[in-house]
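Reference record:
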Amino acid sequence: MEEIYLDFAAATPVASEVLAAMAPFWSEDFYNPSASYLAARGVRETLESARASVASVLGAKSSEVIFTAGATEANNLAIHGVMRQFPGANCVVSAIEHESVLAPANECDCRLATVATDGRIDLAKLAELIDKNTALVAVMYANNEIGTIQPLKEVAKLVTKERTARAASGNKLPIYLLTDAAQAANYLDLHVSRLGVDLMSLNGGKIYGPKQSGCLFVKTGVKLLPLISGGGQENNLRSGTENVAASVGLAKALELAQEVRASESKRLAELQNYFFSQLAKLIPDASVNGSLKHRLPNNLHITLPGQDNERLIFALDAAGIMVAAGSACSASGEESSHVLTAIGLGDASARASLRLTMGRTTTKAQLDECLKSLCRLA
């Protein structure tokens, strides 16, 4: 029985090119990049080359890229790094953010911005929430559960408008825009200037790179307080000996992802359309969650009325098909997904929903097999 993996939003296999790029830094070029001898300086050069590679994809300066152990750390560094400087300030975050944004934000004075039923941010209501005491706005680039892509450029305009108003009134509190781009990096443009963001988090484990690799883009002029103090690595924002292998792997994975972005997005969009059209024919009462127009091409989030997603996941797993109910980071929780609640799904519908996410190895034949199993189970 062929195993069919449809949970690429949770984890991707490490690409062979990425493994090859990382290999020397486990045991051959193992030197501490901060050491002064020649071999270590060579490792430092490789680390900085990886940083420059990431910066190139982002349209940023090398000094604006901080390597982290994934997007969760990057989001925490961004949020706490800003908010701890301004105890009396508030932050505004979208209601469908990943837990790695919601959890640190909720440790501050946090306001949740609502979304429409398709998962897109309500710009008018977002504007109402931003006031003279808002130091940070966080809106993810693309949602990890339903795949909805946010209008980041429009959000950036709201932040810029508030920044301009403060300059005119003498309000010296800064306001920054953070976006979690962990799910977006395979399929969307990451150029930070075009998007208008001040902070951006990325995760290597979602783009065929190693788990526990990632980075935070920090625009020049944005001041953060570090989470970890010590030797002052990563521009004094992340002390500790650098994980060169992970950083090199992230850079290579990001480079490869952007190289195939257009072709892979087109291929997956065709498979997505095929799956949705077949689902409508085979299971007419099934519905699709999230925006159909503004959507990641690999995302297939569906509701099968009257079903129990836990039962379906185990039954599909027994048939060799791996899918999810929502974010793998919080999949063990008993409560319904906060994302599905935010878009208006009731508890019964939320518990009847499945997240299927495709990747580079997904084929039409695999989707047909999945549809066949869903028909049998539903």
Observations:
- The longest strand covers residues 90-94.
- DSSP finds 15 helices and twelve strands in the chain.
- The CA atoms of residues 214 and 235 lie 16 Å apart.
- The chain has a mean pLDDT of 96.
